[in-house]
């Protein structure tokens, strides 16, 4: 988009990707509106004790809570590489801040608020406004339909046209669940890590955690402090299991789950079996754009969004439709600014 021809641009989401996209667009002289369904910016870095009404997140009619943060979460990268390239994530002397090199999640949210304030982005954000539809019109513009709850019994619906849309709605809201033989008759409780907040509800119970990435590691060790037993099921554990995790008396590593049964048993491929009370799925998330209508041109297939040029532009709609923040297992701050420039 040329700086000499300002465009009206809708940015969906006021998390890290949406904020940096809005800043770059503003710098180029475009007229930017950021849609944010929460009442504050920060995206996935907003902590709330509330969770989805469906603990495993598969009911399409569930009450959805955007955040996936657990209370104890700290960043797993040093702050020196966590910040935007031209806005370092440095410790400040402001009150109630976290100066640690690996700070807690609240420090990241405060950093994002500082970023938005310093670059004049807050006035661009429509808080409490959820986008329900994005689709291309015959005139080449994009229709964006949104709704905002003014109070408990009054919702305002707005239809607008934009020259371009940037989708930054995050990737940690729609849980992905493992397919386990026998789960339909297994009597225990199930929860996705998206809805995990604190360990206390798991006290004195036998827990199976599925997954071996960061959240599985954090959650299994935290729960082990209060649970009777914790058993981690990992597809990368190909031999030597089951085995006790070093430093814990009640934490074991197993291979993948083979099946579960009506007796509450969980059978692993390594031949071991435990009777568990709860299964926690630390199995990641699915890309989800329920508001976007492209007549099948942009699709999510096997959790891959495409076709996208450089993981950003669908060729059929470039440059008026773009996605920022799509790749995962990367530094989202560095990724966001790199994809927005």
Protein model, in words:
This protein is α/β, with parallel strands linked by helices and 341 residues long. The chain has two domains: 8-173 and 285-340, FAD/NAD(P)-binding domain (3-Layer(bba) Sandwich), CATH 3.50.50; 178-281, FAD/NAD(P)-binding domain (3-Layer(bba) Sandwich). Helices cover 13% and strands 28% of the residues. The chain contains four helices and 22 strands. The protein has helices at 16-27, 105-118, 214-224, 332-340; strands at residues 8-12, 31-36, 125-127, 129-136, 142-151, 154-162, 164-167, 174-175, 189-192, 206-210, 229-233, 243-244, 251-254, 257-260, 265-268, 273-275, 278-281, 285-286, 292-293, 299-301, 304-306, 321-323. The strands form six sheets. It has a six-stranded mixed beta sheet with strand order 9-17-10-11-13-12, covered by helices on one side. It has a five-stranded parallel beta sheet with strand order 3-2-1-7-22, with helices on one face. It has a four-stranded mixed beta sheet with strand order 6-5-4-19, with no helix packed on it. Helix 1 (16-27) runs parallel beside helix 4 (332-340). The longest helix has 14 residues, at 105-118. The radius of gyration is 22 Å and the shape is globular. The model has no long low-confidence stretch (mean pLDDT 94).
Share in β-strands: 25-35%
H-E string: EHEHEEEEEEEEHEEEEEEEEEEEEH
Mind telling me which CATH architecture of the largest domain this is? 3-Layer(bba) Sandwich
Number of strands: 22
Supply the helix-strand structural class.
Answer: alpha/beta
What would you call the shape? globular
Q: Helical proportion?
A: 10-25%
The top-level CATH class of the largest domain is Alpha Beta
Number of domains: 2
Annotated CATH topology of the largest domain? FAD/NAD(P)-binding domain
Could you list the spans in which at least 5 consecutive residues all have pLDDT below 50?
none
| CATH level-4 homologous superfamily of the largest domain | FAD/NAD(P)-binding domain
| Major pleated sheet | 6 strands, mixed
